[in-house]
């Protein structure tokens, strides 16, 4: 249709007309974002002040459902426990899925913001503070803002919007819960899926890369068994603390000597629980940790090496066989290269080409990858939240790093961050559903 509309024009005139249309569309998006921002900031601060942990996001989901219904979306709640699916039909065309996350983290916020969270909840049987220290509140405000923008500009696109609000991203369980609850059978299967995520870089910028962009994630728990006794007579015991400590050291040889050093892979022990007092050798020690990788073959090396190392250190101590529980997490987040090629001109036009950066592979994980594994071409983009001058200062030798996601001091600058999130989401969807 674009070629027909400009038939008879020279190449230079064609480019000028197309550029003028793009500039006009960017201006229309910016005007909608500015108009809606005061209400979006209020929504952001409300969500920030009332965070909820995984699969308990009932208040948050209800607020987003009300926002989307007010825009004319058909909303289905309680998909995958607390998730929601919002559909907006606008003629024949592709189905584009846009994801946000609902959940917060069981941790205390220490930002000092006037709307800082002081909420508490029970987490693993213990009272804990709750905070949106991963930026999901920014994502939600941008998600609603993008929906508002796209509805206001519905004469510029056609197809089906499928906006989903996913629970339990922090425990990498919500995407799978939604798929198992019929996300792609009860609702239209999307042609593409898009998500955004905050990072501790300069606001007004976005970064992404084709191929592996976030790691696969598996978790493990190992119970090393022993024979308890008095601390003064260790020869009468089998000390599980000594066995577990040996494992913590020895398992790193799997990473350094069995994994291809050119490929990414990490085994981290994050919890070591054993004993009650200093003069008793306990009868067991419990370790918990995570395994991260990009390539399936590396993942297999790490999983096998972890199990073998645990069994061998127990045998070397004369201890019973350990209980090893490996819980599969999510696969590697693979950004679709052809999808990037389709949307990149629009992103560069919306933000400026110098604000669109090549991301380094991220070693964290996100269960947005579940949708890619289901065969949906997917793209996750990371966008900045801090003033450029602070980012530049933090990059100097010896300077302290800016607080990143999951830090109690993570404090995005709301307005430019949310507006950037809206612009890159809107530009992406408009490029994929262009009516011209």
From TrEMBL:
Q: Which domain of life is it from?
A: Bacteria
Q: Where does the UniProt annotation place the signal sequence?
A: 1-23
Kindly list the cofactors needed: Mn(2+)
Please tell me where Mn(2+) binds in this chain. 134, 136, 170, 197, 406
Known InterPro entries for this protein? Amidohydrolase (IPR017439), Bact_exopeptidase_dim_dom (IPR036264), Peptidase_M20 (IPR002933), Peptidase_M20_dimer (IPR011650)
Keywords carried by this UniProt record: Hydrolase, Manganese, Metal-binding, Signal
Which Gene3D superfamilies does UniProt cross-reference here? 3.30.70.360, Zn peptidases (3.40.630.10)
GO biological process terms held by the UniProt record? diaminopimelate biosynthetic process
Q: Which GO terms describe its molecular function?
A: metal ion binding; N-acetyldiaminopimelate deacetylase activity
Using the record's annotation, list all stretches that form the Peptidase M20 dimerisation domain: 219-313
Q: How is the cofactor bound?
A: The Mn(2+) ion enhances activity.
Matching NCBIfam families: amidohydrolases
PANTHER family listed in its UniProt record = METALLOPEPTIDASE, PUTATIVE (AFU_ORTHOLOGUE AFUA_6G09600)-RELATED (PTHR11014:SF63), PEPTIDASE M20 FAMILY MEMBER (PTHR11014)
Protein name per its UniProtKB record: Hippurate hydrolase
């Amino acid at each position: 249709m674009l070629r027909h509309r400009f038939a008879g024009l020279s190449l230079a005139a064609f480019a000028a007309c197309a550029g003028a249309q793009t500039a006009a569309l960017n201006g229309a998006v910016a005007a909608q974002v500015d108009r809606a921002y005061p209400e979006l900031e209020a929504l952001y601060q409300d969500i920030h002040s009332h965070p909820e942990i995984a699969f308990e996001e009932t208040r948050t989901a209800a607020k987003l459902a009300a926002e989307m219904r007010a825009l004319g979306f058909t909303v289905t709640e309680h998909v995958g426990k607390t998730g929601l699916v919002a559909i907006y039909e606008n003629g024949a065309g592709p189905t584009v899925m846009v994801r946000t996350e609902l959940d917060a983290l069981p941790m205390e916020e220490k930002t000092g913001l006037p709307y800082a969270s002081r909420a508490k909840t029970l987490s693993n049987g213990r009272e804990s503070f709750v905070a949106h220290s991963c930026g999901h509140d920014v994502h939600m405000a941008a998600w609603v803002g993008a929906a508002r923008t796209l509805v206001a500009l519905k004469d510029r696109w056609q197809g089906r919007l499928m906006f989903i609000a996913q629970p339990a991203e922090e425990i990498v369980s919500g995407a799978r819960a939604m798929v198992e609850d019929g996300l792609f059978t009860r609702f239209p299967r999307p042609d593409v899926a898009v998500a955004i995520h905050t990072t501790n870089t300069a606001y007004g910028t976005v970064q992404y890369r084709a191929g592996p962009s976030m790691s696969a994630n598996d978790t493990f728990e190992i119970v090393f068994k022993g024979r308890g006794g008095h601390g003064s007579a260790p020869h009468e015991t089998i000390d599980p603390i000594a066995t577990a400590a040996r494992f913590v050291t020895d398992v790193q040889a799997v990473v350094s000597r069995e994994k291809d050093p050119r490929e990414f892979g990490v085994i981290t022990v994050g919890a070591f629980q054993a004993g009650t007092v200093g003069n008793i050798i306990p009868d067991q020690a419990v370790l918990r940790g995570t395994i991260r990788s990009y390539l399936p073959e590396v993942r297999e090396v790490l999983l096998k090496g972890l199990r073998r190392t645990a069994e061998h250190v127990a045998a070397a101590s004369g201890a019973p066989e350990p209980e090893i529980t490996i819980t599969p997490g999510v696969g590697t987040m693979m950004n679709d290269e052809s999808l990037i090629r389709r949307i990149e001109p629009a992103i560069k036009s919306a933000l400026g080409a110098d604000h669109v950066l090549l991301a380094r592979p991220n070693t964290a994980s996100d269960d947005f990858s579940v949708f890619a594994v289901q065969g949906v071409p997917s793209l996750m983009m990371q966008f900045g939240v801090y003033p450029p001058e602070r980012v530049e200062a933090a990059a100097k030798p010896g300077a302290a790093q800016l607080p990143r996601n999951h830090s109690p001091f993570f404090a995005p600058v709301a307005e430019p961050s949310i507006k950037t999130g809206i612009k890159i989401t809107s530009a992406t969807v408009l490029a994929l559903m262009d009516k011209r």
